[in-house]
Amino acid sequence: MKERVIMLVDGLSFYASIEKAAHPEYRDKPVAVGDPARKSGIILAACPAAKSQGVTTAERVGEALAKCPELVVIRPRMQTYISVSLFMTEIYESFTDQVEPYSVDEQFLDVTGSLSLFGGSADEIARQIQARVQLSTGIWTRVGIGPTKILAKMATDNFAKKVPGGVYTLSKDNIESDLWPLPIHQMFMVASRMTRHFAHMGLLTIGDIARLDLGEFKRRMRYEMGKQSDIQAEYYWQTANGIDPSPVIAGMRKQIKVINNGRALRWGKYRTMEDIEPLMLELVIEVCRRARRYGYMGRVISVAAAETDGYRSSSFGRQVTLFRPTYLEHEVGAAAYSLFAKYWRRMPITHLHITLTGLSADDVYQLDLFEDREKLILRSKTIDQIKDRFGPASIVRASSLMETGQAYERAAQIGGHWA
Ligand SMILES: [Mg+2]
Question: In the prediction, which pLDDT does 295 show?
């Protein structure tokens, strides 16, 4: 197979840069995005001038102001940020039709097919993209380039964000010299708990994993984490080696207003709550997975069902609006379950449909202070990635093990935890 050329383009201090472009009067001031009226609220983004004075994302507005009293705190305008993000997608689409938004300020581009149109060089495309985006939005972008998505992502996070010029390529020629010496926590999807496990296994750098024979790494992981850790081992080993067959999938995040999943059912099979719960869970899991893939959370959960006992029939469609958007299975599931339990007339159901609407970009979740929830969100995304890479069957095993998995799985389990 021909080697692909994939980019991850990341907007520097995205929200703050948009606000700076919109407010020329703050040009030379430290600017952050957050709620100026709530000192306990969180800083969502800070411009480089603010960062140089110690302001960091995710700290409280009050703490940031204490460090940097002249900080200009601007209320977030998520709709604007999403519009700018979509506008950036359009710019990228003038370079390739394969553009996949990864988050509001990060997008993957597969430029393999367009290299010859732009002088044959990925670096040249990257520089043109940077110039175009800067000119039309005021946002400076950094571009990581690699033969796989995972390498492009790690090229951005670990290198392109740090080098002058903001463009960096990780390929099989420099993965060993550049990526492998990095400490293991700089590898994608490795957080503190896995860092500790790896340290315990004597693995301190990304190269320590990459250089191991996969079989040997699996053996060590089983010893450290239990005998069902094979998929997890494979995931980390592939990541360390830059292996990632997943394609850049175009067309996400646009035009989506509704995410739904439903089923027509064989009559008589779904009579009791015990019959229906697993089906509902299945629908909820798929809705949530799609929502994560599109980068949307929803606040409105709807359940529609049709039921009949052969004599009478009935149907309902009801919805509930949550106080914050979600795509977490246990939250969507709890809402769906209580709606269903309330309106179901206890006849065998012939149709069940779950819908998520009131969508907003999933970056907005950072607005709240539920740190555990943020962990759950990271968990669910990790699990999706494993599923994408190793197939749906992998997930039952993998999700219960991933750093991320256990509490999440338990929370999402049917029965008892729903309501
Ligand atoms: Mg960024």
Answer: 81
